[in-house]
Amino acid sequence: DSTTLTIETSIPFTSHNCEPPSRTLETTPKELMTFFRDMALMRRMEIAADSLYKAKLIRGFCHLYDGQEAVAIGMEAAITKKDCIITAYRDHCTFLGRGGTLLQVFAELMGRQAGCSKGKGGSMHFYKKDAGFYGGHGIVGAQIPLGCGLAFGQKYSKDETVTFALYGDGAANQGQLFEALNISALWDLPAILVCENNHYGMGTAEWRAAKSPAYYKRGDYVPGLKVDGMDVFAVKQACKFAKEHALKNGPIILEMDTYRYHGHSMSDPGSTYRTRDEISGVRQERDPIDRIRKLIFAHDLATEKELKDIEKEVRKEVDEAIAQAKESPMLEPSELFTNIYVKGYGTESFGADRKEVRTVLP
Amino acid sequence: KEMTVRDALNSALDEEMSADPKVFLMGEEVGEYQGAYKITKGLLDKYGPDRVLDTPITEAGFTGIGVGAAYYGLRPVIEFMTFNFSMQAIDHIINSAAKSNYMSAGQINVPIVFRGPNGAAAGVGAQHSQCYAAWYAACPGLKVLTPYSSEDARGLLKAAIRDPDPVVFLENELLYGESFPVSAEVLDSSFCLPIGKAKIEREGKDVTITAFSKMVGYSLQAAEILAKEGISAEVINLRSIRPLDRKTINDSVRKTNRLVTVEEGFPQHGVGAEICASVVEDSFGYLDAPVERISGADVPMPYAANLERLAVPQVEDIVRAAKRACYKSSSLAASA
């Protein structure tokens, strides 16, 4: 089906130091259906991770992305895998968007060999270098200079590609953001700083942490765009715009107004610092999947039953991946000592009891 | 032929930049100013501003950018004006650089060099005078190199730049101007030293002295004095703090049966402490005397010249400790 549909983003873009892109854009039935399916898959994956965590099959930290799916999907729709993405610890869906598989996700979460980092990284450390995904970073804000460094590499290598460095509203107040942004602007690096503003840095509301929560303006001399991050088309349009801008003029900030339904991490019920009404209000009025569902119905592209069937398929896919992940073996103890260095020069490394466990690093 | 450590470092950078277009330099004053200590002199003219980048005075920002560029496959050489300033960026050295290869199961290696002067210079006070060898060497994933001579500086810096892993390269400001003899082999552009191998600077049979950076020179002076008093000291230039050449150290101690460790850093949890532990674990039966540790005093560096002298090891401290290990001195406990 090659029909094109003309649609409008939910609201106009608000801009800082630049002319905003048009809110009118074209899409196709195929794109709409793909967005629906991909976001439903992400949603289902995160809900399943929640259950696995509660069943104690996932350890440690686990930060879920449900509610924010439109950012990952809209961004991917605007760029190629030669462009780079780097993000913080809420990284499962970004990884999936880059072409990672459900099996790699669940196996990593369960610490199995088939995980994307062979089980050595965990929830916060997913990578897919062959598709330009550089993690998966656990230290708030650190991924921003790292992303600008990727952009430096792209410019240095004359690759004509860009890097999207994602961070939350919590990290938006970090000093290293401003250090890296200053350098990126001085050197015209093709860096796009994407503030996923889900309005809470852990449990601290944005206005309690930021004197100015208008994050798209916080770059001062760097242009910015405020985007409805719950509208996948707005995200796509903004990312396309930002990529063109960055290749020509250097860095730009995109503030994605989004929302996480889950708490900050699994230890946070997410209800002490915000009201249940607030959460259900966003679900009812701004849910990114629901928005696409409505567009699909408005254009008569599928019936309710057909979308339900897609959701069933997605659920099956997730369940199958979990079953496969559970079959994946645990790591060999010898893996404890691999990947410390690329070149270990035959030096010794030690286990907890060095008389018992010592090995030579290749 | 002689060469200063400064020229050795400069020529190593020059040759590696010329050999590999992915190598670039970044840091404060490395370009137009020609380097705060002139290590990068002439390189901006030769390689241009795309490869020699002056940064603002924002370590967290430019170090993070350097590590990101290394993720992408470039080979950054990041200069810290002194390693004291690397504290502003230590998260990127440890969490972003050292751990990525492991966390990603080998997907993201980080071929980067962090270099600059480390430890005490002269009269610059507490915040500019700390040795970070023990700090960085405590972290798996990093390699930590400490050149002493011009040969070390050339061979180790070239090895560091060619290495696929993150390397912390600790220089010493007071050595930059010192000249050392260099062979034709050392001057050849293919010259490179192995990482993780110590060098026996002087052979001896009575006592082993381990040292790195500037303290190698002091230990060699101490060995001269000891020789006149009939004590034959073996001086080991560690060159690499991580990986640590435990074999060379233990082999030497098994021969001499006595050990003095020397470093400028703080004593607690220091490089000497680790060497001592290694020898106690692997060569306990060979020791004929308690291990002696010479280190910086356990105080922040004072400014006053007389106090500063008391805070850093002197040649006579090494001599005294070696004699003590050889039971050649009565109790000369320093009464400060």
UniProtKB/TrEMBL annotation, chain A:
<dbReference type="GO" id="GO:0004739">
    <property type="term" value="F:pyruvate dehydrogenase (acetyl-transferring) activity"/>
</dbReference>
<keyword id="KW-0786">Thiamine pyrophosphate</keyword>
<dbReference type="GO" id="GO:0006086">
    <property type="term" value="P:pyruvate decarboxylation to acetyl-CoA"/>
</dbReference>
<dbReference type="Pfam" id="PF00676">
    <property type="entry name" value="E1_dh"/>
</dbReference>
<keyword id="KW-0560">Oxidoreductase</keyword>
<comment type="subunit">
    <text>Tetramer of 2 alpha and 2 beta subunits.</text>
</comment>
<dbReference type="InterPro" id="IPR050642">
    <property type="entry name" value="PDH_E1_Alpha_Subunit"/>
</dbReference>
<dbReference type="InterPro" id="IPR017597">
    <property type="entry name" value="Pyrv_DH_E1_asu_subgrp-y"/>
</dbReference>
<dbReference type="InterPro" id="IPR029061">
    <property type="entry name" value="THDP-binding"/>
</dbReference>
<protein>
    <recommendedName>
        <fullName>Pyruvate dehydrogenase E1 component subunit alpha</fullName>
        <ecNumber>1.2.4.1</ecNumber>
    </recommendedName>
</protein>
<feature type="domain" description="Dehydrogenase E1 component">
    <location>
        <begin position="37"/>
        <end position="333"/>
    </location>
</feature>
<dbReference type="InterPro" id="IPR001017">
    <property type="entry name" value="DH_E1"/>
</dbReference>
<keyword id="KW-0670">Pyruvate</keyword>
<comment type="function">
    <text>The pyruvate dehydrogenase complex catalyzes the overall conversion of pyruvate to acetyl-CoA and CO(2). It contains multiple copies of three enzymatic components: pyruvate dehydrogenase (E1), dihydrolipoamide acetyltransferase (E2) and lipoamide dehydrogenase (E3).</text>
</comment>
